[in-house]
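Progress note, project year one: complex with zinc ion.
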Amino acid sequence: MHELGIVFHMIRTVEGVATDRDIARVSAVTLELGEVSGIIPSYLESCWRWACDRSELMRGADLVVEEVPAITYCEDCERTYPTVEHGRTCPYCGSGRTVLAQGDETIIKEIAVPDERPGGLAGSSEVADSDSAIRV
Ligand SMILES: [Zn+2]
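Model obtained:
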């Protein structure tokens, strides 16, 4: 039940933001989900429905999943490659000294409020960091 834990964590986070900003209803939450996060989006969605029905704040809120492709960085040749295709071994130089640059994240990117423009979160800066990391 990993997905349910994620959903509870997300809802707690959203509830915290809602309390800080005096938000009474949430219409949608956008989640950046890494390709190798190990989370199954369809399962996450059904956990989301179930949990949101139990919360006044979250009732009827949509879950928007933006999948982040997994990219691995090679420390030896300083190139990046798709993680799912090649795993931990660099396809360019055969090195095993590789690190996942992005793709295991579960970051709340945006919380949408009815009749208001979506507000960004602190998590957005983390998103910007990983974006710049893949341009190396
Ligand atoms: Zn390499």
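The chain has a mean pLDDT of 86.
The longest helix spans residues 2-21.
No further modelling is planned for this target in the current period.
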